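stuck on this chain:
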Amino acid sequence: MSWQAYVDTNLVATGKVQKAAILGQAGGVWASSPGYTLSAEEQKAVIAAFADPVTAQSQGLRLAGQKFFTLSANDRSIYLKKAADGAVIVKTKQAILVTEYAAPIQAPEATPIVEGLADYLISVGY
């Protein structure tokens, strides 16, 4: 399966994730939903947030030009909020899944989708 198919089929097609991108931990966008563009600075900040979750917690993150506040951050997952919308970012062995959901979808609906795909990718070496 292509990386784009993971974005389209496993994330966006669920109806629980509005926008998604898969980043390589070494940098670069492997796949993204149409029109969802993370700047080079935003990509670097997402990657750096896993090395320094305390800074991510205090400063939040920007995704596609939108500022999100950090609800929680650790070395695997970062959960963000912006008004009624939110984002779930999960690190695998080689990739980082960056997803956004929009109201009326809530975190408990989107989070298992993203975490489940991350678990699968980890299980197959990614």
User: Anything to note?
Assistant: The mean pLDDT is 96. The chain is about 35% helix and 35% strand.
